[in-house]
Every structure is written in C-alpha cells, then in structure tokens.
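Take a sample.
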Amino acid sequence: MNDGVDGLESHDVAPWLDRKVAALRSHATQFTVEAASDRAGSAESLGEIVHVGGQRQPIDRVESFRRVGSGAAVG
C-alpha cells in the first residue's frame, strides 16, 4: 500500500502490530495503551492511545509518511 500520492507513502503495519503496541506501551509516562479487549463494543478496533490529558487516539493499522526537506545532509 504505497500510493505515493503527493509524496505520501502509506504502509500496512499489520505484520508488526504486536511490536508497535509494545513500543507504544513503553511510553507509559506520556500515555497509556487501552487494548480493544479492554473496552466494550470494540470488536473491530485495535485499541486506543489515551494521553495524560484524556485525549483518545485510535491505534491505526496503516501508517503514512511524507518526506520533509530536500534529503540533503545538514551540517
């Protein structure tokens, strides 16, 4: 899933989802990870990140990236 539209690359990270969630859980001072199984009615959800201020953000299976800058070495 690498669409390249407007320089945007999207990737399905499903094969590494367990590693992604484990990495997110290692930032416990900044937010917590609430697994889909922890919440009622969340059969299709992968879970959520809950920030210290209470904001909720879904854990996405697809991640998108865009190159910023020229790519030239800085220094």
User: Anything to note?
Assistant: The two ends are 34 Å apart (CA to CA).
